Amino acid sequence: MAKLKEGVKAPQFNLQSSNGEKVALKDFKGKKRVVLYFYPKDNTPGCTVEACEFRDDRSKIEKAGAVILGVSPDGLSDHEKFVKKFKLPFLLLSDENKKICRAYGVWVKKSMYGRSYMGVARSTFVIGKKGKIEKIYSKVKPEGHSDEILDFLRSEHA
């Protein structure tokens, strides 16, 4: 898969969500922008920081005309526990077969302690109402990322 670029049509998805319903990108077309953030694993330190910042800024992000959707390869039961534990007011999507992670180019080879493995590269895509990628954030640092997103959503370029 070629690396996605800003201005191109976002890959479609239709995934089970933490509330038990299917969520598709096309559900938001013409209505809201989508902040689609990919994260490695529920209930881990960095992922918790990122999710809680999005939780705390959700109303501001929604006021700026966007909806937040989190995606990881975790299963629905893990997502449900994560949502409940941290009172997350947005949906987490389960991509257990990594199809959407691959489509967005975030399923990558990583290494830690000299060991290589496949995993999710923490990334966020802001998708416009017409279904095109407006902004891509790669190699996201969890702390302060929600503020970056808010700044972009409120900017004149968005």
What do these coordinates show?
- The chain is an alpha/beta fold.
- 28% of the residues lie in helices and 28% in strands.
- The protein is built from 4 helices and 9 strands.
- The strands form 3 sheets. A 5-stranded mixed sheet has the order 5-4-3-8-9. The chain has a two-stranded antiparallel sheet with strand order 1-2.
- A hairpin with a 5-residue loop joins strand 8 and strand 9 (133-137).
Task: Give a concise summary.
The protein has 158 residues and is α/β, with parallel strands linked by helices. The protein has helices at 45-63, 76-86, 99-103, 145-154, and strands at 14-16, 22-24, 33-38, 66-72, 91-94, 107-112, 115-120, 123-127, 133-137. 28% of the residues lie in helices and 28% in strands.
Largest sheet: 5 strands, mixed
- What share of residues is helical? 25-40%
Distance between the termini: 26 Å
The level 1 CATH classification is: Alpha Beta
Shape: globular
Give me the count of strands.
9
Give the structural class. Answer: alpha/beta
Low-confidence stretches: none
User: How many domains would you count in the coordinates?
Assistant: 1
What is the annotated CATH architecture? 3-Layer(aba) Sandwich
The total of helices stands at 4
